[in-house]
């Protein structure tokens, strides 16, 4: 056992678990029974933000056991807690909303919420992308259609918020270096030049039927090492690369807390108010 020296980020689940997609490989479904925000949730969210900031945290992420934009008021309430903390000195340079992007096709939705969320500290919207082709994206989400990515980028940027892409690495999707390269080039052309990738897997970090082969993942990392400039590595694995002025980041889906390490990748605030040192609660509880 060692003392914690750094807590890099906070991830907060918001909303009631509602979702407008139906992914076969959804990692959030098992959390939906607990998707009920309570006063304890907001108190502990504030505590997690301040604790991470005290230990050098640089990123605050809003996510959900469903789709956070389906319950936009919950996003607002969480960001109000963050704004209070930021005004008191617990500021994060990166505040991200992770979303499937579907609701952001609606310009009125974007005009209603994005300026508000920006004023409360939101810096980026991170769109989850299974394919750079919208027809394949629709199939991954089990939807009849998916919005044009260019439209989503335009709607978000019109409101002064940055756009990131979460290019998910999935078996039979983007699962090798050739597909990764094609996807990266196309996404950059569509206006998404800040791209994070991780392999789809089980919530405990283990491989699933949707996880790409180890050989395929190795090929993607090898391509990055040969064709992009490593800006910095992550203590937990992976790193951030400069690819012709664009940001490419590769990391793991989840990091199981290791009590022998002197850092915590993220504090996760669950909707029942529990704070854990990772997405796997067992052996990683911080506050309850």
Total of domains: 1
Distance between the termini: 21 Å
> Which CATH class applies here?
Alpha Beta
Based on secondary structure, the structural category is: alpha/beta
Give start-end ranges of low-pLDDT stretches: none
Q: Which overall shape is indicated by the principal axes computed on the Cα atoms?
A: globular
Mean pLDDT: 91
Helix share bin = 25-40%
Quick one: CATH superfamily?
Answer: Aldolase class I
Order of helices and strands: EEHEHEHEHHEHEHEEEEEEE
- In CATH, the architecture is Alpha-Beta Barrel
Q: Please give the order of strands in the largest beta sheet.
A: 8-9-10-7-6-5-4-3-2-12-13-14
Q: How would you sum up this structure, described in words?
A:
- The protein has one domain: TIM Barrel (Alpha-Beta Barrel).
- Helix content is 31%, strand content 22%.
- It is built from seven helices and 14 strands.
- It has helices at residues 39-54, 72-87, 107-119, 134-140, 149-158, 177-189, 214-227; strands spanning 6-7, 9-13, 59-63, 94-99, 124-129, 162-169, 194-199, 229-233, 239-243, 246-250, 263-264, 267-269, 275-276, 285-287.
- Strands 8-9-10-7-6-5-4-3-2-12-13-14 form a twelve-stranded mixed β-sheet. A two-stranded parallel sheet has the order 1-11.
Keyword list:
TIM Barrel, 7 helices, globular, 14 strands, 288 residues, 31% helix, two-stranded parallel sheet, alpha/beta, single chain
């Amino acid at each position: 056992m060692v003392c914690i020296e750094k807590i890099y980020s906070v991830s907060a689940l918001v909303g009631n678990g509602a979702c407008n997609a139906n992914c076969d490989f959804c990692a959030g479904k098992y959390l939906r029974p607990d998707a009920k925000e309570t006063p304890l949730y907001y108190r502990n969210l504030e505590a997690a933000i301040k604790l991470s900031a005290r230990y050098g945290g640089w990123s605050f992420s809003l996510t959900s056991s469903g789709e956070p934009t389906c319950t936009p008021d919950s996003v607002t309430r969480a960001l109000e807690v963050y704004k209070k903390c930021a005004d008191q000195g617990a500021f994060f340079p990166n505040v991200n909303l992770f979303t499937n992007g579907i609701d952001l096709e609606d310009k009125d939705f974007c005009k209603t919420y994005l300026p508000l969320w920006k004023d409360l500290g939101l810096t980026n919207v991170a769109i989850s992308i299974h394919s750079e082709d919208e027809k394949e994206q629709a199939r991954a989400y089990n939807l009849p259609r998916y919005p044009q990515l260019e439209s989503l980028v335009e709607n978000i940027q019109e409101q002064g918020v940055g756009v990131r892409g979460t290019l998910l690495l999935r078996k039979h999707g983007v699962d090798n270096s050739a597909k990764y390269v094609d996807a990266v080039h196309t996404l950059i052309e569509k206006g998404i030049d800040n791209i994070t990738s991780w392999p789809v897997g089980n919530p405990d970090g283990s491989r699933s039927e949707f996880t790409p082969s180890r050989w395929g993942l190795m090929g993607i990392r090898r391509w990055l090492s040969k064709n992009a400039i490593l800006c910095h590595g992550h203590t937990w694995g992976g790193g951030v690369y400069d690819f012709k002025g664009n940001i490419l980041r590769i990391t793991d889906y989840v990091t199981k807390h290791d009590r022998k390490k002197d850092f915590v990748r993220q504090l996760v605030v669950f909707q029942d108010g529990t704070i854990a040192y990772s997405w796997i609660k067992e052996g990683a509880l911080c506050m309850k």
